[in-house]
Amino acid sequence: MMAAARRRRNVSLPIHATLPQLLSCLEQHNTVLLQAPPGAGKTTVVPPALLDAPWRRDRRILMLEPRRLATRSAARFMARARCEAVGQTVGYRVRLESRISAATRIEIVTEGILTRMIQSDPELPGYAAVLFDEFHERSLNADLGLALVRESQQALREDLRILVMSATLEIEALSRLFDDAPVVRSEGRLHPVDVVYRAARPGQDLLAHVASCVRHSLREDRGSILVFLPGASEIRRVAALLDDGLPGHVDLVPLYGDLSGDAQDAAIAPAPGDRRKIVLATSIAESSLTIEGIRVVIDAGRQRRARFDPNSGMTRLVTSRLSRASADQRSGRAGRLEAGRCYRLWSPAEQASLAPFDPPEILEADLAPLVLELALWGISNPEELSWLDPPPKPHWEQASELLKQLDALDASGVITEHGREMLEFGLNPRLAHLLIEGRRRGKDALAADLAALLSERDIMSQRSGCDLALRYRALHSTTAPTAHRGRIAQVRRLARSLGGGRQDQSDDDAGLGLLLALAFPDRIARARDRRGRFRLSNGRGAYLFEDDPLAGAAWLVAAELDGQARDARIFLAAELSEADIESVLAARIQIATVAEWDEQRGTVRALQRRMLGALVLEETELERPDPATLEAGLLDAMRRRGLEGLKWSESVQQWRARARTAHQLWPDDWPDFDDEALLAELDHWLAPFLAGKQRMSEVEKIDWITALKSRLDYSQQRQLDDLLPTSLALPTGRSARLDYRVENGPVLAVKLQALFGLSAHPHLAQGRLPVVIHLLSPAGRPLAVTADLESFWKNAYPEVRKDMRGRYPKHPWPEDPLTASPREGVKHPRKR
């Protein structure tokens, strides 16, 4: 071991050439950015290099890693290089595990632990520098941690060094954010990687293609193989496809986040002797660690990311194409130790269309944990901190509203004592609230077990159904054949740290749904008309498969859903009684008086409802509703039915068409009168005319012109008649009606002889709007349509005269219509 450690220590890595510049920058600046490609050695070389820096003064170097596996791996590597055990000079801390001693000078932690440390003591007095490793992954905790450390540095610890290390991040933007902090760049390892594009055939299953490519590489390449897949389910499927046909000297191992620490460590260990290893991994293997012996990477080109929807308040896992930066990170795994090969299971054209970088988690995540942490920091407005990407406003507002529901924030967004207590557990705010409320009700162990079950991966397969009570009983049973024993051990371990998990505990799960309702008040679900279909208190739909044991429940509380916009699939839930809702959520139940339109009765029904969010607990019809309620019901009916169903008279239609024409000509001065605009402002122009009305038949008798005119001031009402009159005077002295309802109107339909002598074409609206003239025959049939009467007389009339004078001999057809007298009827009879 000692000899191996010495060999590793003597290996020259690209980062070594950069260390003098890096150390010089850190001597002169308190914030430095290091850009180093995969394989440069930044993770394991930089922290020990800082131990001799004069500004350290025997304080610790703190380095953040995005994952527990990378944290343990980096600490072990550095400790071995020093011929020491982990916990001496180099130690680490992850959730539920700590290898730190008084001698520790390099402390590697996961990102969430830094948040707890700085919240406990913002000065970080025992630390000389904070290193953010693999910052390009842009996790939510990394962004939060950097914002807090930066503010602490500026306000309290000017001597605290911040070193941000990244492989692919656009680091210039980060430099500008930190007042033009210096950037140090390192070259990557120079081992070449042969990139081979090997897209699946049309219609070929991707995972079958992955398995085929693995077999091809086993024949054609040497060394161990790292296969990137989106998630654990795909890893299991590919393992099943490969299980029977592998050579005897090849080991097949999975690597993903929910595996135990021992299983993860085994996956990254080198294959013994002359054996080869195939590692089926998620993006956990993309950076921060070296899997020894890997010479080949096979990349399926997919990744799974959590995406939060602030409208539904739910997070769903989305499988999508990876970015170019991630593809480069993955291919670099093949060249860490020597020349290698990367098979990309897509085409070069697809490669060119990939996004440059993955979106940072802060733009897609549930922000409730971040908002609560910042509230403890004293910040209720995210603009008070420096962000590379600020939190999206809808996500922030949704998180703030949830935290108010959980009593973690007061009405003004200030953290409460309850919110402070929630942060002590290091859990999602919902589960911390559940834990505290469980203790208050004497359900300490049940609450701890439930919080642990919801924090870790599901201990049972989906074939077992969605019932959390079943999982609770399996947690305390030695005979649960469908339960995953390894996951049960993880859940028990976490539960014990939270105050639960006692093996002598009875299987009494009474109150499980009640506690869950406290943590998820927006996900109370009431059965709808079909088995397995539910409506959530947040207004969304949700469903269970019809054969699920909980599908027939009247009430549920859903803990895990897939976040689909219409009907979300429920993965974990517990049954709930209406009595439970009344007992624990009484403060959230509101009484509302609403009015609904009854289509069969043709009238408004006034109802008093007891509501939990969007769910109706009880409903009573009011016999004597107040006028305001009836008015609201009629307005709601109008909005849903629309205006097209109203039997408006022709005069109402014509007035509205004239008003719409005025808006088209002067959009800034006249209001819009189309359906959308009228429906949007019903409360202003129609509501005053609904007094005393309850039925639609009464509404239809309203003086609609007067109602519509109320949207215009008195001056506009007079102007409308002047600018767009209802009729036009003819040369005969008679007035003819104008039709504004016709498209491209207004239209004047008149017999041709009535316009003899009229040379100038009539215009309205101060000359801006020509009248469209429909010229009719003596029998009232169309002869021509014109918006230029002068041109008609000159060019078209001679042909019309030729065709019509024989057909209508009793009517005048003069050669010169401009000098002829207008006529309404036949020629004058000759004098005898």
Summarize this structure as a short list of keywords or feature phrases.
832 residues, alpha/beta, Rossmann fold, eight-stranded mixed β-sheet, six-stranded parallel β-sheet, 29 helices
Give an overview of the whole structure:
It is a single chain. This protein has 832 residues and is of the alpha/beta class. It folds into 6 domains: 2-185, P-loop containing nucleotide triphosphate hydrolases (Rossmann fold), CATH 3.40.50.300; 193-363, Rossmann fold (3-Layer(aba) Sandwich), CATH 3.40.50; 367-424; 515-579; 623-724, no CATH class; 729-804, no CATH class. Helices cover 35% and strands 20% of the residues. The chain is built from 29 helices and 31 strands. An 8-stranded mixed β-sheet has the order 4-3-5-2-6-7-1-8, with helices on both faces. Strands 9-16-13-10-12-11 form a 6-stranded parallel β-sheet, sandwiched between helices. Helix 15 crosses helix 16, helix 16 (429-440) runs antiparallel to helix 17 and helix 16 crosses helix 20.
